[in-house]
TrEMBL record:
Residues 24-322 form the Peptidase M14 domain. This is Peptidase M14 domain-containing protein. Keywords: Carboxypeptidase, Hydrolase, Metal-binding, Metalloprotease, Protease, Zinc. Belongs to the peptidase M14 family.
Length: 322
């Protein structure tokens, strides 16, 4: 298959008017301040809290509703940081906001993308956990909830979505486990907020694509995670994934594997992917960003820009190919 290869123009990382430095990791408060500043300075960007966490933090979503194109536009959802220690993912979402807002109207790919879709970005899906990785434990994964009767803190938010297979393969029912799925499906405020908000996008004006970004492993995946069977859309999901990984590789020659979660990484039930696919959003994908384990969750900051450039090139190429 012949694919047009276009590499997004990298932004200089030290610009005079830059609202956030993108080649370093930022604590939660700095990401929140950036989102507010972005909304205050770009007329077609708005920022709203879609819910509160157990510890009372807001879940901020940035909406990019560019002036061009024909409204109403369908929607694209992209979330980062559902697992707290995967720092490259909030950094990649932040880079994307900077890239899209700075290049709209000049870069043809960015402009076509934003003229076609309203883009909703949740840079930190798990703010309590992310905060905790800065304050106490760099390798914390889950949120910080402690349910009555539980020994330990933390539910794995990406095992807490309920598509009918909640609590199945690849989950733990022990609160001290890394993949603890919670006492019930959608027991967590963070999963409830994303469920309700994206359901609203879906019923209002069509949700064309739902992406959730993880690290690490360099993989591009889709449903199912709960079992080995193919979805009825296997060929189409494989095709769009191939578009994404091909475009991604064209930037820095980073190689991704792709396929269903179950076949590509491991069995996992109660993921946002399986849930989002099952509620009707066919083009639902999860990415595992760099690297392949050399640094793992501790990806050096000097790889942020390259990772974000290739990821957004892949994302835009894939979404425009739907
Ligand atoms: Zn993850």
């Amino acid at each position: 298959m012949e694919l047009e290869r276009h590499v997004l123009k990298a932004l200089p990382t030290q610009r005079k008017d830059q609202k956030i430095v993108t080649n370093t990791y930022h604590p939660l408060e700095e990401i929140e301040a950036y989102l507010q500043e972005l909304a205050a300075s770009v007329s077609w960007v708005s920022v709203e809290s879609i819910g509160k966490t157990f510890e009372g933090r807001d879940m901020w979503v940035a909406t990019l509703a560019a002036p061009g194109g024909t409204s109403p536009k369908p929607s694209v959802w992209i979330d980062c940081g559902i697992h707290a220690r995967e720092w490259i993912t909030p950094a990649t979402c932040v880079y994307g906001l900077d890239l899209l807002t700075e290049n709209y109207g000049t870069d043809p790919d960015v402009t076509a993308f934003l003229d076609k879709y309203n883009v909703y970005v949740l840079p930190v899906h798990n703010p309590d956990g992310y905060y905790y990785t800065w304050s106490d434990d760099r390798l914390w994964r889950k949120n910080r909830m402690q349910h009555p009767g539980d020994t330990c803190h933390g539910v794995d938010l990406n095992r807490n979505f309920d598509d009918g297979h909640w609590g199945g393969a690849g989950t733990s029912d022990n609160s001290c486990g890394g993949t603890y799925c919670g006492p019930t499906g959608f027991s967590e405020l963070e999963t409830q907020a994303v469920r309700d908000y994206t359901n609203q996008l879906y019923s209002n004006n069509n949700l064309t694509a739902y992406f959730t970004i993880h690290s690490y492993g360099q993989m591009w995946m889709y449903a199912y995670g709960w079992g080995a069977e193919d979805t009825p859309h296997e060929q189409e999901l494989f095709r769009v994934s191939e578009t994404g990984v091909t475009a991604l590789r064209s930037v820095h020659d980073t190689v991704y594997t792709y396929g269903s979660i179950y076949e590509t990484i491991y069995p996992a039930s109660g993921t946002s992917i399986d849930w989002s696919y099952s509620r009707g959003v066919v083009h639902t994908y999860t990415l595992e960003l760099r690297d392949e384990g050399q640094n793992g969750f501790l990806l050096p900051a000097d790889q942020i820009i390259a990772t974000a450039e290739e990821t957004w090139t892949g994302l835009i190429a894939a979404i425009m190919d739907i």
